Amino acid sequence: MTSAHTLPPRVTDEKRGRKLLGGIALPVGILALLIAGSVLSEQFLTARNLTNVLINMSIVGIIVVGMTFVFIVRGLADLSVPAMVAIGALLALGLQPALGSLPAAMFGVAAASCAGLINGLLIGYARLNPVITTLATGTIVLGVAQAAVGGVIVYGDSPGLQSFLTGRLLGVPVIVLIFLAVALGGHLLLSRTTFGRWVYATGANPDATKASAVPLRFTKGAAFWMTATLSGFSGVLLGLTLQTARPGVGTGYEFDAITAVVVGGVSLLGGFGNMPRALGGLLLVTLLSNIMVLNGIATESQGLVMGALIAAAVALDVYLRRRGGAS
User: Fold this and answer.
1) Percentage of residues in the chain with pLDDT exceeding 90?
2) Which of 6, 177, 289, 312 has the greatest count of CB atoms below 10 A from its CB?
3) CATH class for domain 4-326?
4) Which residues, 6 or more positions from 298, have their beta carbon under 8 angstroms from its beta carbon?
5) Mean pLDDT, residues 148-159
6) Higher pLDDT, 80 or 24
7) C-alpha angle 166-170-171 in degrees, rounded to nearest 5
8) DSSP codes of every residue in 141-165
């Protein structure tokens, strides 16, 4: 594998240029939003509102951890996320009477994980298009989930577990602590392990990676398996926290995760990015959304702002890629 000291000029220039997005622009953008939010709304810097921001980040943030791996291996995106969230939430609540709260929650995660394994095999080993494959898998899984509950809302019966997840430990919401643990695990896996090096190699130069000892197919497939598993886990937490779930409970989570990762400077074209950048993008997007809600911005207008933010981030990513390639 190529070491950091022997990177070709193109890669070196590209990484230097990307500091604009992740090293400077992202922190400055977050600081600007904190200032703007405090000016535009008296409620913004209150402990209650900032705690709500962290809680809202947590459910999506767990998915962002997996989606970061998908982006870096050049997997484009995982569009099965809403279905995995839904099946995790529905099974965690729907199976409580038969299995009990914790076994039902584990079953929900396992179901999403099995669907993710199918994604991984089809994309990593059969080399099918990731977008089409995850869209198809998600449609099937969501159909199964809807059939399992009859297309109705499912209610849970575990007030003790709900109280624990919505409670605090050392003053910090438990759901936030769970997210931080997942994020730390994802960061260490990506930055400190052999698998993490495989992920970067797979996304940076797939053709060269084929000639090395890197298991290209396994690595790409594992990224999609991981994303589905974490999405299912996120759905379980969502269901247990709300004690209610419906087949469409995961709608929009894939868009939120993709937005966070792209805005964080993780390349859609693979091979570049890290967990802190992705989570920084998540924080920026969550703060922006919170400011718009506090100021009564219409939902349609919020969508336009987020869409424009994604377009700008992708355009910058492509520009930096071309600039690196032209050097």
Assistant:
1) 58
2) 289
3) mainly alpha
4) none
5) 82
6) 80
7) 60
8) HHHHHHHHHTTS-EE---HHHHHHH
Per-residue pLDDT at 274: 92
> What residue ranges in 7-76 does DSSP mark as E strands?
none
Name the pLDDT band for 176 (thresholds 50, 70, 90): very high
* Cα 240 to Cα 121: distance, rounded to the nearest angstrom: 30
Q: Mean pLDDT for the chain? A: 87
Contact 153, 93 (CB under 8 A): no
Q: 91: which residues sit within 8 A by CB, 6+ positions away?
A: 104, 107, 108, 111, 145, 148
Residues linked to residue 154 through DSSP beta bridges, in sequence order: 245
- SS3 for 36? helix
Q: Where are the domains of the chain?
A: 4-326
pTM listed for this prediction:
0.89
Tokens in use for 240? 């247990």
Distance CA 158, CA 327 (A): 59
DSSP annotation of 167 reads: S
pLDDT confidence of residue 310 = 81
Measured CA distances, 318 to 88, 267, 313 (Å): 35, 9, 9
Q: Provide the pLDDT for residue 3.
A: 47
Exposure string for 46-81, b = 16+ CB within 10 A, e = fewer: eeebeeebbbbbbbbbbbbbbbbbbbbbbbbbbbbb
Rounded Cα distance, 27 and 33, in Å: 10
Q: How much is the pLDDT for 2? A: 46
pLDDT tens string 286-311? 999 999 999 988 887 888 888 888 88
C-beta neighbour count of 261 within 10 angstroms = 31
Strands (DSSP E) found in the chain: 154-155, 168-169, 172-173, 244-245
Q: Tokens 């965690």, residue?
A: 92
CA dihedral 181, 219, 193, 68 (to 10 degrees): -40
